[in-house]
From TrEMBL:
<keyword id="KW-0378">Hydrolase</keyword>
<dbReference type="InterPro" id="IPR001310">
    <property type="entry name" value="Histidine_triad_HIT"/>
</dbReference>
<feature type="active site" description="Tele-AMP-histidine intermediate">
    <location>
        <position position="90"/>
    </location>
</feature>
<feature type="short sequence motif" description="Histidine triad motif">
    <location>
        <begin position="88"/>
        <end position="92"/>
    </location>
</feature>
<dbReference type="InterPro" id="IPR036265">
    <property type="entry name" value="HIT-like_sf"/>
</dbReference>
<dbReference type="GO" id="GO:0009117">
    <property type="term" value="P:nucleotide metabolic process"/>
</dbReference>
<dbReference type="Pfam" id="PF01230">
    <property type="entry name" value="HIT"/>
</dbReference>
<feature type="domain" description="HIT">
    <location>
        <begin position="4"/>
        <end position="104"/>
    </location>
</feature>
<dbReference type="GO" id="GO:0016787">
    <property type="term" value="F:hydrolase activity"/>
</dbReference>
<dbReference type="InterPro" id="IPR011146">
    <property type="entry name" value="HIT-like"/>
</dbReference>
<protein>
    <submittedName>
        <fullName>Hit-like hydrolase</fullName>
    </submittedName>
</protein>
């Protein structure tokens, strides 16, 4: 397997912080000053394939990082498939700085009617309440 994030685990000089299940690096193409990547050590291309243990630790670590770095306003971004640049789950921690940094996501939104909302709601409810 050839994965840049799996390889980064061995480059201790690039790692800002780590624990047994994840590590933190600076994003080399930041959207703002202090833009970080928190990366699970477990290789998984998609979030839904990541172990529950790694996912739980990642979310706890995101909280720790934003608290310790005193990020008051921030975005957490995680892509699966579409626009995913590296096929290894990773979480962008993007602080908002009053120095003019901004995060702009230009997704096209869709206009929907009540029938769509009703059908989509039922589909999700049914899928999540299956036994």
């Amino acid at each position: 397997m050839n994965c840049i994030f799996c390889d980064f685990q061995k480059k201790k000089d690039l790692i800002l912080w780590e624990d047994d299940l994840s590590y933190l690096i600076l994003d080399i193409r930041p959207l703002s000053h202090g833009h970080l990547l928190l990366i699970p050590k477990e290789h998984s291309q998609f979030l839904h394939l990541l172990s529950d243990q790694s996912l739980s630790v990642i979310l706890t670590n995101i909280k720790k990082i934003v608290v310790e770095l005193d990020y008051k306003k921030y975005n957490i971004l995680q892509n699966n498939g579409h626009i995913q640049s590296v096929n290894h789950v990773h979480f962008h921690i993007i602080p908002f700085n009053s120095s003019g940094d901004s995060l702009s996501i230009n997704w096209d939104v869709q206009d929907v009617d009540e029938e769509y909302i009703k059908c989509a709601s039922e589909r999700v409810k049914n899928a999540l309440t299956k036994k």
